[in-house]
Design a protein that fits this description.
The protein is mainly β and about 500 residues long. Among the domains are: about 120 residues, Immunoglobulin-like, CATH 2.60.40; about 90 residues, Immunoglobulin-like (Sandwich); about 90 residues, Immunoglobulins (Immunoglobulin-like, Sandwich). About 10% of the residues lie in helices and about 35% in strands. α1 packs antiparallel against α2. The longest helix is centred in the first third of the chain and has 31 residues. The protein is rod-shaped and about 175 Å long.
Length: about 500
């Protein structure tokens, strides 16, 4: 009987040792396969309702952190079981700027960007991460209760617990100007100056390059007015107050067309009954091709006008009878139409003006005054010799000498020649203005309404080694006990 009791005791001891060893192993494996620290709590719980009272949440403004990677994280503690907590990011307008004294983005201007609303069955410390707007100003809110995606007057009311603000937009875009002559397929127009205005102030200036392109980079988001300093002799399709909208991370493209200016005038004709004349003037500094026609007739043609010059066109007078060109009648006047560039057109009626031939005015030549040379008069000499005969007196004949008429040659007056030095034509261009420094990020941390959250408890990792040691110790003790029993026999 005694032997039987010993065997029974030994068996029970061995069974107990193996049970402890297996239990320690199972506990160790269970701890290793459990949920990791920081995982969201299971929603399977006994909570019938969840509290939306912010007093059951402990958090401060300092608990909201911008992670610098486009996300933000809020850490907080629930002080009782069954609490719902929400964390949201709200974006302000990209072009919004705080006015004097403004320390928050108006609620009506905020748009919900991202957020989470989570229920916590057990009290403890938790964290929620949400995405941030790329460059707009924003507000981050920790609050109790359900997710709020639309803010009104008062916003979260008595549910908000902590918040964080960024009041400055860092969004930027660009504006590209593509300048052509006559049409979008035309040659690029280089050296054209543009001004960019913002809020009635000159913001930037620039000049198109040899490709006709000008780019304004890193422009703060907003509305601008684009102005062109059009060269003399050209027209532009850009309106005087052209509004340009610059949006976030985008490039606004504006194609601007310049067209040379032409002027059409009538000219006189030698015979208006047969022909009519017009003068076409190019006011620009480039060569302009054009076409012309006389509507109602088969007269048409084309040509090119060099820059800053004029050409004369002559056409037949409008025919009044088939096949015969005669003087135009008042009911069918002669009209010339010229076309060029981007659908530019001029028309002008020529009523026929005869060119008058000026009558030359004879010039009066100076009459030279002749110089009279006196001719000496011969006097009679009496005969002093006595003679018995009467001798007739000889009357001397006065022979006038020829009068020489002098020839007066007019002496031409010397004409002073004045040389005028040609100045180089001015080259347009406006130096690029100083760029206004873009606004820097401003992060506003609002003072805590309550004491900052203490350091979160450290959970640590549970090690299975102690359970293995207990099991090994129990096995060793069992074998030693069995061996002593055998020796005692």
């Amino acid at each position: 009987m005694r032997y039987f009791k010993k065997q029974m005791s030994l068996s029970l001891a061995i069974l107990l040792i193996f049970s402890l060893a297996l239990g320690s192993i199972a506990m160790a494996e269970g701890d290793n396969s459990g949920s990791p620290s920081g995982e969201e709590p299971s929603t399977e719980n006994s909570c019938q309702t969840y509290s939306s009272d912010r007093e059951h949440i402990t958090a401060s403004h300092a608990n909201i952190v911008d992670n610098g990677n486009g996300t933000a994280t809020a850490t907080f503690t629930t002080t009782q079981d069954c609490v719902r907590v929400s964390f949201s990011s709200y974006a302000g307008p990209a072009d919004w700027k705080p006015g004097p004294g403004e320390t928050t983005i108006p609620y009506l201007k905020q748009v919900h960007f991202d957020g989470q609303s989570i229920i916590y069955p057990k009290a403890g410390s938790y964290a929620i991460t949400v995405n941030l707007p790329a460059c707009q100003p924003y507000q981050l809110d920790i609050y109790s209760g359900d997710l709020l995606t639309q803010l009104g007057v008062g916003a979260h009311g008595n549910k908000i617990k902590a918040w964080k603000l960024k009041l400055t937009s860092t969004c930027a875009g660009s504006l590209i100007i593509n300048k052509h002559i006559n049409n979008i397929e035309g040659a690029p127009h280089a050296g054209i100056a543009f001004e960019l205005w913002s809020n009635d102030s000159l913001f930037r200036t620039g000049t198109t390059d040899e490709s006709g392109i000008l780019e304004f980079k890193d422009l703060p988001i907003g509305s601008y007015v684009l102005k062109e300093l059009t060269l003399t002799g050209f027209t532009t399709d850009l309106t005087a107050s052209q509004q340009i909208e610059v949006t976030a991370a985008s490039s606004a493209l504006k194609v601007v067309i310049n067209t040379p200016k032409l002027k059409l005038d009538t000219a006189c004709s030698a015979d208006p009954e047969a022909t009519r004349s017009w003068i076409v003037t190019n006011e620009s500094n480039i060569e302009v091709p054009f076409i012309w026609e006389v509507p109602g007739s088969n007269q048409t043609g084309d040509g090119k006008i060099p820059g800053n010059t004029s050409v004369t066109l002559s056409t037949y007078a409008v025919q009044s009878h088939s096949g015969t060109f005669v003087k135009a009648v008042s009911t069918n006047p002669n009209t010339l139409t010229i076309s060029w560039g981007n659908e530019k057109e001029l028309s002008l009626v020529n009523d026929g003006e005869a060119c008058t031939t000026p009558t030359p005015t004879p010039s009066t030549s100076p009459t030279p005054t002749p110089t009279i040379t006196p001719t000496p008069t011969a006097s009679a000499t009496p005969d002093t010799s006595p003679t018995p005969f009467s001798t007739p007196e000889t009357t001397p004949t006065v022979t006038p000498s020829s009068t020489t008429t002098p020839t007066v040659s007019p002496t031409p007056e010397e004409t002073d020649i004045i040389e005028i030095e040609d100045d180089e034509p001015p080259v347009g261009g406006v130096d690029d203005g100083q760029e206004i420094d873009s606004a820097t990020d401003t992060i506003v941390d609002v003072n805590d309404e309550q004491v900052p959250l203490d350091t979160l408890p450290k959970t640590g990792d549970t090690s299975p080694i102690p359970y293995y040691l207990i099991g090994a110790f129990a096995l060793t003790a069992g074998f030693i006990s069995i061996r002593k029993q055998k020796q005692s026999k």
